[in-house]
Amino acid sequence: MKIIFSANSYVHLYKLRLEVIKRLISEGHEIIAVGANDEYKEKIENEGIKCLSINISPNSTNVFSDLKLLINYITIYRKIKPDAIFHSTIKPNIYGSIASRILKIKTVNNISGLGTVFFKENIIKSLVIKLYQFSQKKVFRIFFQNKYDMELFKQMKICSYGQARKIPGSGINIDKFHSKKFKKFKRNNNFEFTYIGRLVKEKGIYEFIDAAQLIIKKYQNVDFKIIGDFDENNNSSISKTVLEKVVNENNNIIHTSYVDDVRQSIVNSDCIVLPSWREGLSNILLESCSLETPVITCNTPGCKDVVIHQYNGLLCSPKNVLDLSIKMEEMIKLPNNKRTKLGKNGRERVGKNFSIDKVFDNYKDVLKAD
Q1: Closest of 63, 55, 77, 81 to residue 2, by C-alpha
Q2: Suppose 362 and one of 48, 167, 227, 313 were both cysteines; which one would form an S-S bond, judging by CB atoms 3.0 to 4.6 Å apart?
Q3: Closest Cα partner for 43 from 21, 24, 62, 59?
Q4: CB 78 within 8 A of CB 103
C-alpha cells in the first residue's frame, strides 16, 4: 500500500512515528512523509523515506493561511493518490482530513494531545471544536492515547463510538530504552531532578522552576536540570530572559538545549519530573520508566495513565508548586532500594502496557479493516 504520514513538522514524525513507519516499510508498504520543513526532514530522508514539505503555521489563526493549507493538502494528496493517510497534530488532523474527505481517501487520525488551545475558554477554542466536528465526520478511525481525550471528543460530538480507538501512546521500544546499555555519569554526588520537554507553561516548566527554588532553600546537595528549547512562536513559551535570570541566580539549576537522544540524560538523573497540565500519553514518562528512572508527574490525563502513585513514581496536583516540592522532598528522602524498586516497576509496567509492538498492531489492524 501507498501510505502518507502527515504532521505539522518532520520532528514530530521522526520522534514519534519513525518506528512504526520503518516497520510498515519492512512489510512492503511505500511511505511518504508530509510535514512543515525543518532540520529533521533530512534525517527522515536518510531513512529512505520520501518527504513532501507543506507550509504549516501551527500557532497561526489566520483564515487565509489555513485555506491555503487546505488547498495545499488537496494538491499533494491528489498527486500522490495514497491508499491511506495517518494524520497527527491539530492542523493536519483538521485540514488534512477535509482534503482526504474531498478525495475519498481512507484516513486515520491520531489525537496525541489536545494542544494549548483546549486550555483556554475563548472563541478560538470554539472555532477549533467546530472545525474538528466538521472534519472528522468521514474519518475512518481516530486513535486516542488516553480514555479522557476519547470521552471528551465523544461528548463534544467530534467523533462517534465506532470511529474511536484507544491505543497505548506512541509506543516504546524497550530494547532501545534499556538502562543496562548505559553507565551513569554525574558531575557530582548531588541528587538530580531533570525536566525534559518543551519550555511551555502547559508542560509545567514554571512549576518545576518554582518548586526547585523551594527545595534549594532546604537542601544544598540537590541539582535541577532543564533540557529543552525555547519556542519563540508560542505565546506559552518561557522567555529566554526569565530562564537565564533563574539559572544565573541559582547554581543548582542548569539549562541545556534539547538533544535527539535523551537516554543518557534520563539514566544520569535520579528522578525525571514532568508537571504537565495534560498529555496525550507522555513519551518522556514512558522512556524514563523503560530506563528504570523514577518519575514525578501530575495527576492528569496522559500522565496518570503511565504512573501509578508510589508504584513507579509519585503523582502531584497540577499547577501546585507546593505539592510538587513536597513530592520532590519525598523522592529525595526515599531509601535507594525503594527508588530502585520504583524504577524496576516502571520498566515492567511499560513493557506490559505501552510497548511499540502493541502500538504497531493497531496500525496493522486499521490498514486491514474495511
Answers
A1: 81
A2: 167
A3: 21
A4: yes
Q: Pairing relation of β-strands 271-274 and 50-53?
A: unpaired
Cα angle for residues 287, 9, 279 (degrees, 5° grid): 40
Contact by Cβ (8 Å): 285, 272: yes
pTM > 0.70: yes
- For 24-49, write each residue's pLDDT tens digit: 999 999 999 999 988 999 999 999 99
pLDDT bin (cut points 50, 70, 90) of residue 113 is confident
Report how far residue 229's alpha carbon sits from residue 272's, in angstroms, rounded to the nearest whole number: 17
Q: What value, to the nearest 5°, has the Cα angle with vertex 67 and ends 63 and 72?
A: 145
Distance CA 137, CA 59 (A): 24
- Report the distance separating Cα 329 and Cα 218, nearest Å: 9
Identity of the amino acid at 19: E
Write out the H or E segment, with its range, that includes residue 343: helix 336-353
Q: What angle do CA 139, 141, 144 make, to 5 degrees?
A: 120
Q: What does the longest C-alpha to C-alpha distance in the chain come to?
A: 62
Residue 92 CA to residue 5 CA, distance in Å, equals 10
**Contact criterion met (CB below 8 Å) for 109 and 100:** no
